[in-house]
Design a protein that fits this description.
The complex is a heterodimer of chains A (about 400) and B (about 400). By secondary structure, chain A is α+β, with helices and mostly antiparallel strands. In chain A, about 50% of the residues lie in helices and about 15% in strands. Chain B is built from 12 helices and 10 strands. Classes of the chains: A alpha+beta (about 400), B alpha+beta (about 400). The complex binds flavin-adenine dinucleotide. The site of flavin-adenine dinucleotide (FAD) has 19 residues of chain B, from strand 1 and helix 12.
Chain lengths: ~400, ~400
C-alpha cells in the first residue's frame, strides 16, 4: 500500500509543473483570458510537444494509455495555474470518448490529429432542461437513408469556440429521459446547421450555447453504437469528474497556501492577523478541508474504476465531498483576505470562482450525494431485534 | 499509487481474523453486551480478558512496541489491518494507558530495571494502568500542574490531586506528571514523570459520574504519598519532554476509523428497521443525506490516515498530523453516536439500568443509544481538546 507516483507519473507531473511555472504566470494568464479567443493556441502546440494530448489514448493509437492517476497529476497542476486551455473538455472528456468508442477507421483518422494538436473535439451533452441528468436528451436525430438530421440545443459547452469538431449526444429512440436511445455523432464544428453563441464564463473560461438546426450527419459519423451511448457517456463523464476533482484539489491548495501567507503578512492592530486565534483556527480548518479533499480524491483514483458500481460510488463520493471543501476553503479564503479578497485584480478571487464553478461541473454536491445514497443505502437489511418491542406490547 | 494489500498482508489479515474467531471469548461478548444494556461500568475482567489473550500471542496486545520489548513488530499496514479486524469483530478496546501511553516512555527513557519491572505486566495485561496528568486547575494548560513531589532521602513525597483519571478505580499503577522544581524559570522545566503504585498509603480514589450515569473517571488524591525515588523515569525535571514525546508517538488508531465504519453499518441497519412516514427511515432523504455525509467524511479520514501510515512506512517519521486525525476522528465518533440516537426517535429517552428502571422498553437496539451520544461529547475534550489540537496545528504545521 502506497501513494507514491511511478517514475513516468513523476515525469509527467514535473513537466506540467514546469509549464505552469514558466509559461503560465499570473500576468501571462491575465493577458490570455482578456483576448477575444480566451486561450493561447501556441500553448496547445506546446501540449502536443510535451505529449500531453496523448494521455487518454491507448498505446496502439500512439497514446499514453493514461489512468485516472495520470489525469489527476496533470489536472492538479493545471488547477494551480488556472490554465484555461481546453484540456479537460477536449482531451480528457472528448478524447476519452473517442478512445473508447471510435471504430478502427475513425480512430486512425481522428486520434493522430488530436495528438498532434491539429483537431480539438468538444462534447455537447447538457441541455437547458437536463441539469446534471445525462439521460435527459431532447436533441433529436432522425434517420433518412444513410443520413441523420439533428435538431436541438446544447448548453454551456466548454471550449466549443476553440474546437474544430464536436460530438453531439442526440436521441435516436426512446423517451426524453430514457437511457436507451442516445447516440453520439461526430461533426465538424463549422458544419452548416451548427451555430455557436460563445461567451466568457464567470471564471474567465469560454463556453458556448450550441444551436443545432437541420444538421445533416452521415451515418458513418456515428460514434459507437446507435442507441447505446449512455453507459459509456456515464463512464467517461465519471472519469472527467475525477479530473475536475483533481483540478479543484490543486486550486484548493493554492487558496489555502495563499491565505496562510496573506494572514502572516497582513498586519492589523500592530501584529500579523495570523496571531489571532479566530483566524488560526479558520486556517487550520481550511487545511483540514484541503487534506480531506485530497484524501477522497486519492480514494477515487485508487478505487477499482473498472467495476461500474465501485466507480460510481468513488466518483460521486469524491465529487460531493470535494464540493463541500470547495465551498468552505473558497469562502474562507475570501473572508480572510478582507477587502483584497473581493478585488478582481488580485488572484485569490479567480481561484475561488474557478473552484466554485468546478463544484457545478458534472454535477454539484446535491446531485452526487443523491447518487451516492442510491449506491450505498439500498437493500440494507434491518438490524436484528427490530421485532423485539418490549414494554406493554 | 496502490491501495491493494499484498499477498502477505492478506495472509496476515486472515491470520488475525482466524485468531479472533477462535480466541475471542463468547462469555466476554455476552458480559459486555449485558453491561451495555444495563448501562453499567465494565468490570476489570471485561477490560483485561482480551488484553491478556492477545498478550499471549506474539505481542499482539502491544502492536506498536519494538520487538526487543516483546512487541508485535507490525508494519504500519499490519497495524491498520489488525485494528480493522478487531473493530469488525467488535472486540473490546485494549485500554491504551499502559500499552500505548506509559510503556513507550518507559522503554524510551526508563532504565533497565524499570523496563524489566513494568513492561512484562503491561504486555500481559496483568497490571492495569491509569494516567495522572490533569488536575482541577490544570487541564489544557497542563504545565501549570501543582501536585508536588519533594525528594526526601531515597523517596519522593507526593501531595496534591489529579482528576478526570479514567478507570483509576481498577488501576494497579498510575503514571503521573508532578512538580519537582517549583522555582524553575518556566513551568515546563520543573515537571517530572513518575510511576506510582496505587496501593501506596495516602492515595484515595473518588468516583466521578459522567452525564450518562457511568463512573468512567475519578479524582485521585495524594496525601503524603511516599514513592521510591527509583520510580522516577529518566531525569528529574525532564517529565514535560517525555510527555510531549508521547503525544506524537502513538498515532495509529487515534482516528478510530475502523470502529466508526462499523458504527455506520449499524446505523444503516437501525435506519432500515425504524419507520418514518410509513417507510423505513433509511428512505427518508434528510436522514439519507446525513448518513452519506458521515460516510464520505469517514472515507476521507480513512485515506488521510492511510496517507500518514504510508508516510510512516516510508520512514518519513510521524508529525503533528496526528492532531488532524484526532480532530476528525472524534468529530466522526460524535456525529455517529448522534445519528444512532437520532435514528431511534422517541426511544432515545428511556434511561435503562438505573435503580429506578429495570424493565426494558423499546426495540432492543435502541437501549442507551442516547447514553453513548452524551458520553461521547468527551471525545473533543480529552486527549488535548480539539481547540488545543488546532492550536498545535496552527503552530507546528502552519507556522502561524
Ligand atoms: C471522559 C474524560 C476522560 C479523561 N481521562 C483523563 C485521564 O485518564 N487522565 C488525565 O490526565 N486526564 C483525563 N481527562 C482530562 C482531559 O485531558 C482534560 O479534560 C482536557 O485536557 C481539558 O482540560 P479541562 O477539562 O480542564 O478544560 P479547560 O482546559 O478548562 O478547557 C475548557 C475549554 O476551553 C478551551 N480552551 C482552553 N485553553 C484554550 C486555548 N489556549 N485556546 C483555545 N481554547 C482553549 C478548551 O478547548 C475547552 O473547550 C479526561 C477528560 C474526560 C472528559
Amino acid at each position: 500500500m502506497h501513494f507514491e507516483l511511478t517514475e513516468e507519473q513523476t515525469l509527467l507531473e514535473n513537466m506540467v509543473t514546469a509549464f505552469v511555472r514558466d509559461d503560465y504566470n499570473w500576468e501571462t494568464r491575465e493577458k490570455i483570458v482578456k483576448t477575444e479567443e480566451g486561450w493561447k493556441p501556441e500553448n496547445w502546440s506546446k501540449f502536443a510537444e510535451l505529449g500531453l494530448l496523448s494521455v487518454p489514448f491507448s498505446e496502439d493509437h500512439g497514446g499514453l494509455g493514461g489512468t485516472a492517476v495520470d489525469s489527476m497529476v496533470v489536472m492538479e497542476q493545471f488547477g494551480k495555474g488556472l490554465v484555461v486551455e481546453p484540456f479537460m473538455p477536449s482531451i480528457l472528456l472528448s478524447g476519452n470518448l473517442i478512445s473508447k468508442l471510435a471504430n478502427e477507421s475513425q480512430a486512425n483518422e481522428i486520434i493522430p490529429k488530436i495528438i498532434e494538436g491539429e483537431s480539438r473535439y468538444v462534447f455537447a451533452y447538457a441541455e437547458p432542461q437536463s441539469r446534471f441528468d445525462l439521460s435527459d436528451v431532447k436533441t433529436s436525430a432522425t434517420k433518412d437513408g444513410d443520413e441523420y438530421t439533428l435538431n436541438g440545443f446544447k448548453s454551456v459547452v466548454f471550449g466549443a469556440s476553440m474546437a474544430t469538431h464536436i460530438i453531439i449526444a442526440a436521441r435516436t429512440s426512446g423517451d426524453q429521459r430514457s437511457e436507451d436511445g442516445i447516440t453520439l455523432f461526430l461533426a465538424d464544428i463549422k458544419s452548416n446547421g451548427i451555430t455557436l453563441q460563445t461567451y466568457p464564463t464567470i471564471d474567465e473560461y469560454r463556453a458556448s450555447e450550441v444551436v443545432i438546426e437541420n444538421l445533416k450527419i452521415s451515418s458513418d459519423m456515428v460514434l459507437g453504437e446507435v442507441d447505446k451511448a449512455y453507459s459509456v457517456v456515464e463512464e467517461v463523464i465519471d472519469l472527467a469528474t475525477i479530473a475536475a476533482c483533481s483540478e479543484a484539489v490543486g486550486i484548493l491548495q493554492v487558496l489555502k497556501d495563499s491565505t496562510i501567507d496573506y494572514c502572516k503578512q497582513r498586519k492589523q492592530f500592530g501584529q500579523p492577523i495570523s496571531k489571532n486565534q479566530a483566524i488560526q483556527h479558520k486556517l487550520v480548518d481550511m487545511m483540514i478541508e484541503y487534506e480531506q479533499a485530497k484524501s477522497i480524491l486519492y480514494a477515487a483514483v485508487t478505487a477499482d474504476l473498472s467495476n461500474a458500481d465501485e466507480r460510481k460510488k468513488a466518483v460521486s463520493g469524491a465529487k460531493a465531498r470535494i464540493g463541500q471543501s470547495i465551498k468552505f476553503v473558497g469562502e474562507s479564503a475570501i473572508q480572510l483576505h478582507g477587502g483584497m479578497g473581493m478585488v478582481d485584480e488580485y488572484m485569490i478571487s479567480h481561484y475561488f470562482k474557478r473552484a466554485t464553478m468546478l463544484g457545478v461541473l458534472f454535477g454539484n454536491v446535491d446531485f452526487h450525494m443523491k447518487r451516492f445514497v442510491g449506491l450505498t443505502q439500498s437493500n440494507i437489511e434491518p438490524i436484528d431485534g427490530s421485532a423485539t418491542i418490549r414494554g406493554g406490547y | 499509487m496502490d491501495t491493494t494489500f499484498s499477498s502477505e498482508d492478506i495472509a496476515f489479515q486472515n491470520e488475525v481474523r482466524d485468531f479472533i474467531a477462535n480466541n475471542y471469548p463468547q462469555s466476554l461478548r455476552d458480559s459486555i453486551a449485558e453491561k451495555k444494556r444495563n448501562n453499567e461500568e465494565l468490570s476489570r475482567e471485561d477490560l483485561t480478558t482480551w488484553h491478556k489473550i492477545l498478550g499471549k500471542n506474539k505481542g499482539w496486545s502491544v502492536p506498536g512496541w519494538p520487538e526487543q520489548y516483546g512487541g508485535a513488530g507490525f508494519t504500519p499496514t499490519q497495524k491498520y489491518i489488525f485494528e480493522q479486524e478487531c473493530a469488525r469483530a467488535e472486540c473490546v478496546i485494549v485500554a491504551p494507558f499502559g500499552p500505548q501511553m506509559c510503556a513507550p516512555v518507559i522503554y524510551t527513557f526508563g532504565n533497565e530495571e524499570q523496563k524489566a519491572k513494568h513492561l512484562p505486566g503491561i504486555l500481559s495485561g496483568e497490571v492495569f494502568w491509569c494516567q495522572g496528568y490533569s488536575e482541577p486547575g490544570s487541564g489544557s494548560d497542563l504545565a501549570s500542574l501543582k501536585t508536588t513531589a519533594v525528594k526526601e532521602g531515597d523517596h519522593y513525597i507526593i501531595n496534591g490531586q489529579k482528576t478526570w483519571t479514567t478507570l483509576a478505580q481498577h488501576a494497579d499503577w498510575i503514571f503521573c506528571l508532578v512538580r519537582t522544581n517549583p522555582d524553575a524559570a518556566k513551568p515546563q522545566e520543573g515537571i517530572s514523570f513518575i510511576l506510582i503504585d496505587m496501593k501506596t498509603p495516602g492515595i484515595e480514589v473518588r468516583p466521578i459520574y459522567l452525564m450518562d450515569g457511568i463512573n468512567e473517571v475519578n479524582e485521585v488524591w495524594f496525601d503524603n504519598v511516599k514513592v521510591p525515588a527509583e520510580n522516577l523515569i529518566g531525569q528529574e525535571n525532564m517529565g514535560w519532554t517525555y510527555a510531549k514525546f508521547l503525544l506524537a508517538h502513538e498515532r495509529s488508531g487515534i482516528a478510530q476509523v475502523a470502529r466508526s465504519k462499523k458504527a455506520i453499518e449499524r446505523i444503516k441497519q437501525i435506519a432500515a428497521a425504524e419507520m418514518s412516514y410509513g417507510e423505513p427511515l433509511i428512505q427518508d432523504p434528510a436522514f439519507q443525506r446525513k448518513i452519506a455525509e458521515a460516510e464520505l467524511e469517514l472515507t476521507s479520514l480513512e485515506y488521510t490516515e492511510l496517507r500518514t501510515l504510508a508516510k510512516d512506512s516510508a520512514g518519513k517519521g510521524p508529525g503533528p498530523e496526528s492532531s488532524l486525525l484526532k480532530i476528525k476522528g472524534t468529530d466522526m465518533q460524535q456525529k455517529l453516536t448522534e445519528l444512532a440516537m437520532e435514528a431511534v426517535g422517541y426511544y432515545a429517552n428511556p434511561h435503562m439500568g438505573t435503580s429506578l428502571s429495570n424493565e426494558y422498553v423499546g426495540p432492543d437496539y435502541s437501549t442507551n443509544l442516547s447514553g453513548s451520544y452524551f458520553n461521547f461529547r468527551k471525545a473533543s475534550i480529552y486527549g488535548g481538546s480539539n481547540e488545543i489540537q488546532r492550536n498545535i496545528i496552527a503552530k507546528m504545521v502552519l507556522g502561524l
